[in-house]
Each structure stands twice: as structure tokens, then as C-alpha cells.
Amino acid sequence: MSDYNFAYLDEQTKRMIRRAILKGVAIPGYQVPFASREMPMPYGWGTGGVQVSAACLTPEDKLKVIDQGADDTTNAVSIRKFFERTAGVETTERTNEATVIQTRHRIPEEPLTEDQILVYQVPIPEPLRFLEPRETETRKMHALEEYGLMHVKLYEDISRHGHIATSYAYPVKVEGRYVMDPSPIPKFDNPKMEMAGLQLFGAGREQRIYAIPPFTRVVSLDFEDHPFEASKADHPCDLCGAGDSYLDEVITDDAGGRMFVCSDTDFCAGRQDAGYRGRLNAEEAA
Amino acid sequence: MLDDALSGDFADAPREAARAFRAVLDAMARPGKIVDILGGAAPAPISPAAATLMLTLCDGETPLYLAPGHDGAAIRQWIAFHIGAPIVDRENAMFALGNWAALAPQTGFPIGTPEYPDRSATLIVEVDALTSEGAHLTGPGIESEAHLSLPETGFFARNAALFPLGVDCVFTSGSRLAALPRSTRVEDR
């Protein structure tokens, strides 16, 4: 063990965060202000998610951290090491083994169970912020359930591009009341937000915590004649052949060569272990 | 239960509080679910679950209301030593502790404001027993339906109608605990 308090934060701070989380769970989709602390990492690296995770972790937990679906990128590796050192918890890369999953901008492909908590890192928690910069005004708009501006924004998308061009951080309405920013997850992931696990959102720089309890209605905003569509690259994964997972496009040379691979590395590796092969992987094996 | 104001705290505060919080979080995220929560002990008649809950969530920043029956010199000493929460009247309380009848009128507690619905009280309600039967619950956190033995249904139905305003309730009995956030719709059936 290290000389840090369990899970880094002091107990007073954890109580404050825990109270905010409970109010967030009681009011699904509402952004609860909290006294965000400075963390030993820069803003934008998940300081909000890390504080929420620190307040939730118990010594028995198994933690998984993903960054854009990947377990092996800098952000994911450093946060995993941070909690290994300060909380002494076990970590894993397997979605089904984890009890707490901290994520940056993806929901794992494998459906979560009710024993799992998904903690999102959120950069800008206010869905109305780019439409109305004043916090006093957006707060009033949420209080009055005045979300017309958001529909105007989506409508302008349609009039300009012929379809709703928003492809990530696609706004949702939670339990018929609060319009919420799902963090910059691709809109492909939006339908997964109605899940058995508990979802917690932490925005460190903006000092907000919000939550979606299990089995809560989460509806992506749309129009009757332009219904919401969860889109992805129209391609199977080049490594595991999955046709139903969210894909990253990877440029492989300077002559226009490219490949599509699952953004969820654990999902892709699990399929490859089970013998599934994609277009490029099969060639290598041959 | 104890009569010594200096004992009853967690032996290993960071870890025990973490486990206790996860139990409360589980209960709040799944209304009607009954969880076990252990580690704290306070003077009678405060249950171990309520004592553990206060040690986990309350401190000098959380004004606390003590209902008749859960007030007294021994209890105030214990709270002053372990928690440090200021004891206030119901209009200023962030947390309240007591039996359901003693907490009346429950409408006197803060329910938040339209801009800040989180600035509302959390009631810690001591009950004789907790069972998964009785009032019919639906809403966020409940897949189809749940049942929980509630002291009444009228108040909770009216409280849910105030959403997103309202108070949140935690029911404690012995070392067991269940929660009823304002988002849960409560019916008699």
C-alpha cells in the first residue's frame, strides 16, 4: 500500500462528492454542482470521472478504464495506474470482469449488468452551452423545461445538411424531463444508455455531477419525419469481422489505404480469441 | 446501541465508508432494494444503519434536524464528536433523522428550488421493519415494478408529483436500509 488515503481523496471531499452523486441519482439528468478538487492530472484528462470513481471505489472493486473504447491508450493506462497505486484495487481490461468502468467517450459493446457502474468523463456537461453561454440562463431554461432552442439547432442541421449532422454528444431527454449531454460518445452508443447498470457522469473543470439510474428512459431528441438513427461506418471490422460494433478508421499508408477496426479493444480481442477473423487479419494468418 | 459518545465510529473510515456508500448508492439507484450497511453505532434509539449512514454522508457542512425521540444529550454529544453537523430546525436541514410520525409535518423540509432541485433534504427514516411488500413503486432504477413497506403512500405520491423538486428518503431498520428518491412513483396496491 501507498501513503495515500484510500482512493486518493480525503474523506471530507469524498463525502461531499457522495452527497452530490446521490442527489444526481435522485434527479436523473440534472447537473448537480460540486466542489471539484484539483487532481494530479490536467483538466481534460478525466478529473471529473476520476473524482466520481474515487468516491465510488471499494477495496473489493475491479476497475476498468477505457479511452475511446481502448484499454491501452495513455489516458486509460495512467488512470488505471493511478487507482492501482492510490486505492490498491485490482484492474482489468475485460468488460465482464469489471465492477467499475471509467470511460472517455464510449460505452462498451458488451451489455453491462446491474452489478456494474459506468463512470463517464465529461468535458462540457451543459447541452445548451454552445447555444447560450450564460450559466444563469441555461439554469433557468432547465428549470422551465425550455428546450426549444435545442430543437431549433437540430432543425437548422436538417435545413443545412438535409439530415441531423450531430454525430457525437447527441442530446438526450432523460425520463421525460431533463435534456442532458451524454458526453462526447458517438450517437451509435445513445440507445445503449437504457441499461441495467448505473451511469454516473463527472465534469471536473465544470464542477458538475449527474447520473442515470438503471432502466431509466433515455430518448435521443429527433423529429417525427427525421427520426434518430444510431449510425456507424458502413463496414465490418477488419480484424474481427464484427458487423455490429462501432469502428475507428485507421489510415495505413499515404496512398489512400485504410482499415476499419473496432473501437472497443476488449470486444475485438475477445472475438479474435473466439476465432472470428476480419478482412486484414485473415490475410496475415494465411 | 451504546451510551459512550466517544465510540461507535468506523474502525477503518476510508474503506468502511466506501463500502457503506456503495450500499446506499445501490439502494438509491434501485428504489425498493434492501441492502445491508454496517460499521457505525450510535446511542439508542439510533439504528446501526442510520448511524453508519450519518458517518458516511454527514459532516460539519450538513445541517441536521433531529426529530423528537431521536434527540437528547447523549445523541447530540455523539453527533458533535463524530460528525460535527450543526443541529438545526427543519426548514434549514439537509438531513433529518427520526421516526416517520416524529418527522411530521414532512412538508416542512426543503424541497429545492426550480434552478437548484438538489438543495433539498434527505430524510433518514427509522422504521421497525423493512420488507419488499406493500406500496407499489415504478420509475427510474426499477425495471418493471418494485414493492417496499412504506409508513404511508400519500405523502410519497405527492412528493413524486413535485418532481424535479421534493425530498429523498432513506429507510433504516437495524442494519438494513432502503431508499426512495423523489423520482419514484408510489401507488397503493
End-to-end Cα distance of chain A: 47 Å
Structural class of chain B: alpha/beta
Corresponding CATH architecture of the largest domain in chain A: 3-Layer(aba) Sandwich
Strand coverage percent of chain B: 15-25%
- In the CATH hierarchy, what is the superfamily of the largest domain in chain A? Bacterial phosphonate metabolism protein PhnH
Q: Main β-sheet of chain A: number of strands, strand sense, barrel status?
A: 7 strands, mixed
**Low-confidence segments of chain A:** none
Q: What does the main sheet of chain B amount to?
A: 6 strands, mixed
Q: What share of the residues of chain A does DSSP label as strand, in percent? A: 15-25%
The rounded Rg of chain B comes to: 16 Å
Structural class of chain A: alpha/beta
CATH class of chain B: Alpha Beta
Largest beta sheet: strand ordering of chain B: 1-8-7-4-3-2
CATH topology of chain B: Rossmann fold
Write structural notes for this entry.
Chain A: It catalyses: alpha-D-ribose 1-methylphosphonate 5-phosphate + AH2 + S-adenosyl-L-methionine = alpha-D-ribose 1,2-cyclic phosphate 5-phosphate + methane + 5'-deoxyadenosine + L-methionine + A + H(+). Chain A: It is an enzyme of class 4 (lyase). The complex is a heterodimer of chains A (286) and B (189). Chain A is of the alpha/beta class. Chain A folds into two domains: 11-220, Bacterial phosphonate metabolism protein PhnH (Rossmann fold); 247-285, no CATH class. Chain A is built from seven helices and twelve strands. In chain A, strand 6 and strand 7 form a beta hairpin. In chain A, helix 1 (11-26) packs across helix 2 (47-56). The radius of gyration of chain A is 20 Å and the shape is globular. The model of chain A has no long low-confidence stretch (mean pLDDT 95). By secondary structure, chain B is an alpha/beta fold. Chain B has one domain: Rossmann fold, CATH 3.40.50.11310. Chain B has five helices and nine strands. In chain B, helix 4 links the parallel strand 3 (95-99) and strand 4 (122-126). In chain B, helix 1 packs across helix 2. Chain B is globular and about 45 Å long. Chain B starts with 12 loop residues before the first helix and ends with a strand. The interface between A and B is large, with 46 and 38 residues.
